[in-house]
Amino acid sequence: MEIIPGVHSIPAGSSPFMGFFAPNVYLVVGNEGALIDSGYGNQESVSSRLDYVSSFAGLRLAYILITHAHPDHLGGARKIKERTGAQIVLHSAEARAADVLADKLVEEGDVLTLDGASLEVLHTPGHSPGHVCFLLREKRILFSGDHVLGMGTTAMRPPEGDMAQYIDSLRKLLDYDIEMICPGHGPLITAPRRKLEELIQHRLDREQQVLNGLRRGKATVKELVAEIYPELDSRLYEAAQGQVLAHLLKLEREGKATPRESAGYTVK
Ligand SMILES: [Zn+2]
User: Which of 226, 45, 239 is nearest to 146 (CA)?
Assistant: First the structure.
């Protein structure tokens, strides 16, 4: 499916992972191509991505640009590389943290050129230590991986996830002139600035709820989750725990909360 000229979203076909959490894979096309993320590694997902790429006669896939090393983004990379010869590209911190091999390691500010298209690497740690977004400069489109989602909330699982870094990385994106965001999950984001501001505000509101809970004597992650998410679906419990713990660790680092001798935290 072509989003705008030269930028495609590649559906995975019917896979067991379809639905709300299905990862988006994008293809930037010129005389050469680059994939943004690779989807899951199951054969059906990989085959549908490869079929899409080969529908462009003579297209050489130069890069598989990975936003971060989670299986729904990196899983298909090796198989796609084997078939196309494309280089797998990862941020150095992500390769180190997840202990995966890449053909090319990148850092903040690196630019990958692709026959008329320039993709700038923006290091956006938070969801994971070496998470990156890729900015397609000519069209001012940001491929945001799991840093900014089309719907729902980015998972934060300490120690991999870091709330302070995550909020800083959201603020950092406000400095860029971005026309549209192509997220790692969910629909395209056509009002990027508003979305970024909403996400930052949402995290600050949650942080305030955590502080209020601590002040009322809710000390542990479990107690805080029960207070902040009173009607939580049990399937989302683990995710909520991660969010609350990430907020507590941020507050601790900022000197606003301290661990108690027993379990949990208290306000300073
Ligand atoms: Zn992820």
Answer: 239
